[in-house]
Amino acid sequence: MKKVFYWSMLLFIFSIPISSYVSTKLLVIVFVISLLTKASGKRSLALEMRKSWDILAFLLILIIGLINTDDIETGFKVLETSFSLLALLVVFTRLNKSEGLVSHIFISFMSGLLVACLISLGTAGVSFIGSGNFQDFFYYQLTEVIQLHPTYLAYYLIASITYIVYIIFYNLEKKRMSAWIAIVFFFFLMLVLTGGRTTYVSLLLIFSFFILKYILENKTKEKAIVFSVVLILLVSLFAINSTTFFNLKFSQHSDYWERSILWKSAILANPNPLQGVGTGDYKTVLNEYYQSHGMKEYAIDSFNSHNQFIQVYFSNGVIGLIFLLLLIGRPIYLSMKSQNILGILLLFPFVIYGVTEVFLGRYQGVVFFALLHQIVIYQHYSSKPSFALDAS
């Protein structure tokens, strides 16, 4: 039973970048199997779940928010979208402590991501041959075949690049180094094609970290390789952003546009700063505000605030915002406490993502955050963290 549970979990993780439809079905299956799987030793489900109390508290806030909600249907859809937070919490409580677990998880995820990228790029190439339109390689057209929003593909790519660069830098992967570096360059190419300019800030911060670590620490062959790769990618990033061709493509199809009007609207439309408008009424109330303030185009597209922090403040008030900050901040704090650099590098970008996107508003964002959150919690409470500050 444990082997079935373990391999079904890895299959679910593999499917995340490829298909949301398949991934959600597999998550339910893995969740059910986890409930039937006994953990080793005297670990109880209730005791293990306490380690992720921040997730339980945030979900409780969403449930309480249904009390103020007139649109119950939308409220339950929000809870349905957030199901992966609870499901992965339970799944990780059933996993036995293993030094190779995190590595297996990332290899499964990156394998699925590689397949998703190849499908997207191959489909775009076939479409380009027929149409001669370079737009087939960019943004929505690129990821349409796998029905994945390009912004979330960019999140996945940045996390994967970070993981690969990290394991090479700290000499945690001594084999297949050339293959790993080739994958980094391929993922970087795909990242450029997503047009995710707002995610570049995260990439710059991550690259800056490795450059500083190389300068300040003892030099090794692996660190020199990472330093060279990072410099090449940084130069390429700045060169691409200064190229007229790519600027034209990004201006036509990218995630770079003015969001301040949406932020301001969501803040001003909130009639109850303490409790918010309710878990399910955010669309109705915000669209009414758009209509009454001459922003009908936003109401037609039913835009949310495009800011995770403002969105939670709008729907669940200051109380909800506090628990959201705990949800994001606690695993980062635990990573700092256990000197887990990888945890910090993987989770801190969500602070940046949260400024420009509602990443907990889509399954693709929730499930990825939930996965990284539980990896960090697992690492912190493991007797031997795999990724320590002084890994070298």
Instruction: Provide the domain count.
Output: 2
By secondary-structure content and strand pairing, the structural class works out as: mainly alpha
DSSP strand content: under 5%
In round numbers, the mean pLDDT is 89
CA-based gyration radius: 21 Å
Description of the structure:
The protein has helices spanning 2-15, 20-36, 45-49, 53-64, 72-81, 83-93, 101-131, 139-143, 150-169, 177-193, 197-216, 221-241, 244-252, 260-268, 282-292, 296-301, 308-337, 341-347, 349-356, 363-381. The protein has 20 helices and no strands. It has 392 residues and is an all-alpha fold. Helix 7 packs across helix 9, helix 9 (150-169) packs antiparallel against helix 10 and helix 17 runs antiparallel to helix 19 (349-356). It starts with a helix and ends in an 11-residue tail after the last helix. Residues 385-392 have low confidence and may be disordered. The protein has two domains: 52-81 and 258-392, no CATH class; 97-256.
Layout: helices, strands, pairs:
Elements (H helix, E strand, L loop, with lengths): L1 H14 L4 H17 L8 H5 L3 H12 L7 H10 L1 H11 L7 H31 L7 H5 L6 H20 L7 H17 L3 H20 L4 H21 L2 H9 L7 H9 L13 H11 L3 H6 L6 H30 L3 H7 L1 H8 L6 H19 L11
Helix pairs in contact: 1-2, 1-7, 2-6, 4-17, 6-20, 7-9, 9-10, 9-11, 9-12, 10-12, 11-12, 11-19, 17-18, 17-19, 17-20
